[in-house]
Amino acid sequence: MKVLFVSSGNSEHFKVSPFIKAQGESLVAKGIALDYFSIVGKGLLNYLKNVGPLRRYLRENPCDIIHAHYSLCGWVAVLAAGKIPVVLSLMGDDAQGTFTGKQRIALKSRLLIFLTKLVQPFVQAIISKSENLEQAVYRKNISWLIPNGVQLNQFKLYPGGCREALGLDADKQYVLFLGNTTDPNKNFDLVKAAVARLNRPGVELLNVFGVPHDTVVQYLNSVDVFTLCSYGEGSPNVVKEAMTCNCPLVVTPAGDAAWVVADTPGCYVAGYAPDDFAEKLNAALDFARETGRTRGRERILELGLDAAAIADKLIDVYKTLLPGDTGQVATARKL
After folding, report:
1. How far apart are CA 137 and CA 134, in angstroms?
2. Which residue, 151, 159, 226, 258, is the most exposed by fewest CB within 10 angstroms?
């Protein structure tokens, strides 16, 4: 089976988003032949300029399945695919809009939500990464709920951490924010305000963004607490990655973060009020000082969120679209 991933190539940091690349690598490990086609240009009109190049690419590089990541990529795939089945993965803002605050969505993103509704009759399968995204899918008969998985061999454990390699003080407690501080949806001001409310000397807030995945792994093995403050997400991989590294954490209930965390000791779900976030952050810092690391990796394995297990679910979806093969639907439909 040969699959083509179609995704945005507009990041200044990487040609293919790390979590999409990781998903592709997990499929290759299962014997799937996989190529990538990166969309260049932002906005609907610029996306559509990629239809011709994708058609030419497909003539020279035929495939069995096109898997488009993001609704605008889905439109490009649909217009270029001909008779090739198209699988669409919803990413987050294409299904629920771009959040600018709690329950506030940017007006311009409503067009994207409409386009997500409009493309559904033309694709053969739709994958939602969390239940909140699946609410945007009205073609339930082709809907699948499959979060992204975590590559356990990449997000490995470093007993004792990597503070020396990262230049971090051995005596400080570090709170980590992984994300773009200028993105309103990422809500950096929340953790900033929460840290300011703590009466804890020796606590430092770190912002790390645009670094290689291997460096992210080092940070998650070295800091005391990871934080996610977003208003809206699909299925935030970084929460699963922090859990896989047994890092204590505080997260807002964005996407499926609360479900992933559940009642894991040392992992807390906070609201959007700085006082509440500070309270949970204080508890997480206490846990880090007194207990050390969590058992989050066990939780990820319990949920079946390792990349290999998720790859099997994706392959089941692909099989349902190929002639004479119905796949094992039950394994992929729900977790």
Report:
1. 5
2. 159
pLDDT category, 104, cuts 50, 70, 90?
A: low
b/e burial code for range 302-332 (CB count within 10 A of at least 16 → b):
ebebbbbbbbbbbbbbbbbbeeeeebeeebb
**Which pLDDT tens digit goes with each residue over 203-228?**
999 999 988 889 999 999 999 999 99
Q: Are 219 and 166 in contact (CB under 8 A)?
A: yes
- Amino acid at site 124: Q
The CA distances from residue 15 to 12, 53, 116, in Å, are 8, 17, 24
- Distance in angstroms (rounded) separating the CA atoms of residues 92 and 128: 9
Report whether 225 contacts 175 (CB < 8 A): yes
Distance, in Å, from the CA atom of 324 to the CA atom of 126, rounded to the nearest integer, reads: 20
Residue 7 belongs to what H/E stretch? strand 2-8
What is the model's pTM? 0.86
Cα distance between residue 56 and residue 53, in whole Å: 5
Residue 127 to residue 104: CA distance in whole angstroms: 25
Q: Which domains does the chain have, with CATH numbers?
A: 2-149+306-333 (3.40.50.2000), 163-301 (3.40.50.2000)
Torsion angle of C-alpha atoms 265, 234, 236, 51, degrees rounded to 10: 160
